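Q: My labmate handed me this sequence with no annotations at all. I'd like to see what the chain might look like in three dimensions before we decide whether it's worth expressing. Could you predict it?
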Amino acid sequence: MYADQVAALGSTPKALAVSPRNPAIAIAITSKAMVVLDAGKVSATVPLSFPASSVSISPDGVTVAVGGDDNKASQQPISTASA
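A: Here is what I predict for the chain of 83 residues:
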């Protein structure tokens, strides 16, 4: 679908999740940020205050959850992440 597109994330991605509702939306996690990708392009970068290690998007495509190396998880609406 977007095989010829490359998004610069600023550091090595640790995890990636694709929205089940809208495959054009993806969330990449680096050690310092959550990066929202829309159609293969960076639409937002949200700094994280913890070292992230995993990411998941809810089945309805509305919420993103980020797990950290600190044994905690945070979640927020994707609309907030991409605003």
